[in-house]
Model the fold of this input.
Amino acid sequence: MTAELLILAITLVAGLYMAWTIGANDVANAMGTSVGSGALTLTMAIVLAAVFEFSGSVLVGSEVTSTISKGIVETDLFAPTGPLGPDGPLLLGVGMLSALLASAIWLHLATHLGLPVSTTHSIVGSVVGVGLVSFGLHGVQWGAMGQIVASWFISPLMGGVLAFLTFGAIRGLILRHPDPVYATRRYSPYIVGATVSIMTLSFIYKVLQNRFEAPPLVMSVLGALTAGVAAGVIAGALLRATRPGSRDPYQYVERIFALLQIATACYVAFAHGANDVANAVGPVAAVVELYRDGFNGVSSQIGVPFWVLVMGGGGIVIGLATLGYRVIATIGKEITEITPTRGFSAEFGAATTVLIASSLGLPISTTHTLVGGVIGVGFAQGIGALNMAMIRNIVNSWLATVPVSAGVAALLYTLARVLVL
Amino acid sequence: MRSIFGLFAKSPFGPLVQHAERVHDTVVLIRPLMDAFVAGDWERTEEIYRRIEVLEHEADVIKNDIRDHLPKSLFLPVDRGDVLKFLKEQDKIADGAEDLGVLLTMRRTPTPESIKAGVFGLVDAVVRASERWYEVAKELPTLLEASFTGPEVDRILAMVNEVALAERETDDRQAEVTKQLFEHEEEIGAVSVMMWFNIVRVLGSMANAAENTADLLRLMLAKR
Done:
C-alpha cells in the first residue's frame, strides 16, 4: 500500500469515527428538548433525527465542509510551487489527517473527563494548529477565522433573540389572550405557515442552488410562501378536528404545540446535520480531493464530493443508532422543565440561526445556539429556572478547546511529517 | 460542552406547592387540636401537637431544600428575592400552627363556656383562610405554564382577594373573642385570660401569614 492510499484510508476511517461520535453524542442535544417536552417519543425522535440529520448533511452540508477543508488554512501555500515544494500537497493531506485525529482524540478525552467541549470548536482549533505549524501566522486565513470566531459570539445571541421573539409572540397572542384555546386555534395555522415557509425557503434556496441552477430569489420566496399557506390551511383544518378536552386551557395549548414541535425538531436535526457534518468530513473532503489529483496539486475550486457528505451523514446515523439513542433517552429524562411551547420557540430560534450560518459556510456550535435559544425563552418568562453558569461553560469551551485541540493537532502533524518525509 | 441539560435547573415552583401542601396539613390539624384541648383531653392534645410538630419539620425540610436550590446564578421568571420572601411568609403559617400547639400543651387552661363558640368559629375561619390560600398556591405551576400572563393571572388575583376576605373574617372573630374574654375576665381569672389572649393572637397570626403570602404573589404579578 502506498503512503498516499494509506493516508486516504486512515482519513476515511477517522472521518467516519468523527461522524459516529457526532451521531452518538451531539444529536442528543438537538433532539433532547423535544423528547423532554414529550413532543416526541424516543423512537420517533430517533427516526426523525436519522432522516433529517442525513438530509441536512447531504443537501446543505457542503458549504461548511468546504470552509473546514479550504477556508481556514492557507491551502495555496501547500501548492507544489509553494515554499514546501512538490511535497506540499502530501503535507496538506497529512495535516488534515492530523487535525482530524487530534480533534477525535481531544473530544474523546474531554468527554471522558466531563469537560465542556464542542465538536465544532475542536475541529476548527485542530485545523488552525496545522496551519500555524506549517507556516506560522501566515498559515491561517485570519479574515475567515475572524468571521468564524465572531459567529461563535453571534450565534448563541441570535438564537436567543429569535427564540425570545418567538416565545414573546406565543405569549402575547395565545397565553395572554382571554381564551387561550380560541387563540391557539386562531393563530397556530399562521405559526405553522411561517415555520414551513422559512424551512422551505432555506431548502429551495440552498438545496436547489447546490444541486442545480440557482433559482431566482423571487421564485424561491413565492415557492416558500405557497408551501407556507398550504401548510397553514391544512393545519387549520386539522385544528378544527381537535377537542379542548380538559378544563385547563394550557394543556390544550401545549398539546397543539407538541405537534408543532415535531416540525421544529426536524428543523433542528436538519440544521444540525447541515452544519456539523463538516466537523467530520471537512478534512476528509480535503484529503479525497488531494488524492484524486495524485497529491500533485492543490485545487482552488470549491466543491465537496457528494459521496463524502453521504459518508458523513451515514456515519451520524450509525452513531445515532448504536449509542445516540441512549444519550437522547437520558437527556430527554433530565429535561422535564420544558414544555412544547417553550421547546418550539427555542428550537425555532436555534435552527434558523444554525441554518443561516450553514448557508454562509460558518461552522458554529448547534448546542451553544440551542442554549442561547433556551435562555431567550427564559428571558421571556417561559422557564422555571435556568442555570446561568452555563454561559460561563460556553466561554470556557472556547477557551479550553480551541488552543488544546490546536496544540494536539500541531504535535501530531509534526510527528507525522517526520514519518512521511 | 456536549450536553445541554446542565442548563435546566430545578424549578422552585413545584416544590413551593409541596411546601404549601405540608403547611396546610399542619393547619388542618388545629381543629382537632382545639377539640381535644377544649374537651380537656390533654393526652390527645399532646398527641396532635406532636403530629403538627412532625409536619412542620417536614415543611422546614422542603423550605431548606428550595433555598439550597436557588443560588444567585439561577435565572427565574420572577424576582428571586420575591420567591424567597413568599417561601418565608408561607412557612410562618405552619410556625403559627406549631406555636398554637406549644401554647395548648404548656398549661392545662380550662375553656370558659362564654368564649367556646367564638373560639371554634375563629379556628374554623383560620382553616378556611388557609384553604383559600392553599388553592392559590396550587396554581403556581399553571401560572408558570401561562408564563405569568393572561386569564390565569386574573383568576389568581381573584383568588388572592378571596384570601383577603377570609383573613378579614378571622380579624372580626378575633376581636369578638377577645372582647368576650375581657367581659368575663373576673370569672375566668388573670392567668387564663392571658393564655387565651395569646391563643387567639396566634390564631390570628396564621390567617395574617396566609394573607401576606397571597399578597406577595400579587406583588410578584404586579411587577410583570
Summary: Chain A has a mean pLDDT of 88.
